[in-house]
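Anyone else keep sequences and structure tokens together like this?

Example one:
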Amino acid sequence: MNQITPPPKIEIIPPSAPFSEAQRSWLNGFLAGLLSNDVAVPLSPEQGAAMLQAPAAAEDDDDAPWHDQTLPIAERMKLAEGRPLRRRMMAAMAQQDCGQCGYNCRDYSNAIADKSEARLNLCVPGGKETARMLKTLYEELDKAPAPAKAASSAPAAPAAPAVVAEPGRSRDNPAPATFVGRRLLNKKGSEKETYHIDFDLSESALDYVVGDSFGVFAKNDLGLVDQIIALLGASHTTKVNGKTLREALISDVSLSPAPDKLFELISFITGGAQREKARALAQGEDPDGDAATLDVMAALQKFSGVRPHPEAFVEALEPLQPRLYSISSSHNATPGKLSLTVDCVRYVVGKRRRLGLASTFLAERINPGEKLNVYVQKAHGFGLPQDPKTPIIMVGPGTGIAPFRAFLLDRKATGATGKNWLFFGHQRSDYDFFYADELNAMKTSGLLTRLSLAWSRDGAKKFYVQDRMREVGRELWTWLAEGAHLYICGDAKRMAKDVERALVDIVAQFGARSTDEAVAFVAELKKKGRFQQDVY
């Protein structure tokens, strides 16, 4: 029997071209068919790259210019005009890549666009405005033409089974941790209330890397829950989805802010002007100028006398979302233990005191020895340099010190020899110098090479970390020229922008560059991973 010689495998797309093996195989066949009797000439690596460049640029969208936490959503959406739907969905997110949704912003938008993720309300920092925009964009999915599919005689491969993250590695599969205790970091006289919080992870055997964040599933305040039940005119023992109404409101649903679906429900069971007002609120309008202050309780008070059925009421509320905090400890230094640095949020709207969900839960509503559900959220591009000899500059005012305390503890535990420079600031040195004894001891030992402090309320003129940076700009530039990595943690809206502006000024002045060249230098630091931010 004669052996049949298989036809030669045509390699039009070279192995060096930037395609996956599956893409390269399909393109080879497709192009071979087009060329048929013509001579097929393989593409050069440069041509292969050029072929990919146009679609890649469309997908990457010039590095997503809207991916900036400091831009309001209207500006982000304007920057994304005319872009593919999934990129406009990305622009609707809060751009923090914080991981509270279980993704980064790009992957969350891709998952929604691919219809593998149906939940449009996972972006905690973006809140209602992001959820509303995603809902509007999601409606375009069904109107958009389906992408053309390549003809194939081969049967479709079965879908891969969903991968379930091990406990404690995802918001969708949390693990138990034990609350150990809390201690107040501010001294008497401070205007702030900030706690050092400790957890024991030994039961779940969770570990983490410095730079990671910690997801906490908090519970709502019992006093607030009971006031809402009273406004409903219901009994706290009423059964809802197998739980009592009180249990459901404490553990399952968010009580701030009031969601659009609640106003839709209210519009169904009221009439006249009240119905029109509820409909307007459900559509994101602000008929009375108070929409931003309406949490669930305030919404019920606004439409007093409207008493939804408890089950319909709970169904109209958003699920209770976990809250993420920067980890302020090192697994290498204290295995099985984890610490957070948490500002307690309390504020007054009208005559009513409002409470931050997780911060007050950790500050006063959970007792030592009690368990709670948690998970570790891996950092997206925020962590120590791979080379332990690399110097680092850390800018973390207020609770922004959290990951940098972790960095320093980790470098001590691992024997890293790189120099360490910390900029820390707060309101008053007498009351708000977090971890003062620790930091001074680190400085004395040589672990902390430099400690630069800024107190905004100690003098007649406010003085911030960016002001201190400018004062020591020459030395800071020298560190950067020596290859130092620079980190920022804290407020995205003002502090991070002000620090970056100061950095550009320092590079221009002491690096002998024009402003444009300094901006480009800082951008290159980011591109190379030498300038990283954990801002919120």
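And example two:
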Amino acid sequence: MVVCGDDGLAHRLAAELRGVYGEQVTLVVPASERTVRPPVVVRARSASALLDRVVTAAAGLTGNGNGNGAVTAAGEPPNGIRLMEAAEPNEAALAGAGVERADALALVYDDDETNIRAALTARRLNPRLRLVLRLYNRRLGQHIEELLDQAATLATGGPADGTGFDASTTVLSDADTAAPALAATALTGTSKVLQTGGLLLRAVERPPAGAGVSAAPGLATLALLSPTDSAGLGGDQGPTLLPDAAAVRDGGGRTTVVLEQVSYAGPALPDGRGVMPWFASLFSRRLRWSLAGMVGCVVALAVALWLVTGIHPLRAFYLTLLDLFAIDDPAIGQSVGRQILQLLSGLAGLLLLPVLLAAVLEALGTFRTTSSLRKPPRGLGGHVVLLGLGKIGTRVLTRLRELNIPVVCVESDPEARGLATARRLRVPVVLGDVTQEGVLEAAKIHRAHALLAVTSADTTNLEAVLYARAVHPDLRVVLRLYDDDFATAVYRTLRAAHPRASTRSRSVSHLAAPAFAGAMMGRQILGAFPVERRVLLFAAVDVGGHPQLEGKTVGEAFRAGFWRVLALETATGGNSALVWDLPDTYVLRDTDRVLLAATRRGLAELLGRRTGSRG
């Protein structure tokens, strides 16, 4: 695996590939990236040791790029990440990194043009190479993906030539890959999720039977953790991945790891599609009370006219309306009571005119200004407060609403790109500077379930979180911070100050790295979950062309310790959905597409690829 980049995402991606997938990685960075600041890597399995080894290796490098594309190789440190320096990813740099012999290349520079130029060069050097590009322009990314795939098909004779090579091209963006993890972190406190079929899935540990906790079985049993001895320490047996029913039944006191769906079970926001919610959003609270008072006054005058004159109630109501709009004849020669009621009705009509004028002006102003954004309803609680409706905030908002999670947004810019999305989704928005007093209170922060601070300013996110914790000490908070070191320091400090509350401080590179790593392993790979010292991969695989699956039942296709079919993917109206709880007697057809969990060795055998250093 070759990773080329100029920021923290490159270092985290390299560590993810090595620490989770066990791949041999070559990391290519500019000289200034190494000399200005040592790389910060993700804490995968052996987090602190991996960090120490990578930083030590970077600190021991010598030599600089000459600014003309020169490459300086630094050897291969013991952790399996080979560091190189290159001023730019030109042909010489890519050749020096071994792209011609590599399985996959990730280009994660902050500049779209640099990534595209390097991708075109890499495709020419190695047509069978898997490419993963980081592009901010999604429309351009779709065209580049099609172009590079077509070039690979013409050069190799097909997208896969039967020798285990997958010459696919995948274009990703930070915002799209980080949004599901941010949404899951706000909901469950963990960013280790799997997104597929419109669902968010996570792996959770369930205590053994008889531990005093009744747990749901989940969607599937993924693993049995290492047995513990009398001192509570793990034994040398290691975890059992993808066990069969007999192993689960005989597991004894071993903790199980099950797959479950991330969902929200709290109160929901009113959809605002009824008559009264629409009326309430159109007029202010004071105007609604004024209109209600006028209606009550008219009813009272009609009842009084009915009692004084003894006429039919409907006729009394009709005459009252005529008097209200001053279109009835004067009550000359009638009783004094009738005359007094006619005068009072005329007075009520005069008072009604400014109320109607205010209603018209307010309704027109509602459609012309940003006041059409919904306000947080009274009594709202258990919701997520989302700070910032920029590129990432808009993606997070869309993902939260897809999960039916109630959200209240806070945005200081009335022209922010995400306001149109919030208006379309009918999400309440508070316009104001989050650092000003009263803004978070207007978002009902004291009754919120979580706070997601994803503005582009680290200090703004931190200030908002500190203020929210002062108002609601047990609030779950998730911060988006650009700097990895700063994110780590903030996380440790907040955890020490509020040990009982859930705190997550994440950089976008930390959240995006798993998705980029999965794409480097192949388009089939949807994600991975570490299980102690091993890892489980999740992949979407077409049954056709795989004799281990085609024509077999789900029970026959299951191979304990290697792979297991979890769900069947179906397409309805252009949207894909997953069918869970497949019976063991279901026969897999060549046209089916399934979601399966597999070990690294099992997936390599299933897809006909070689395995890395660890299976």
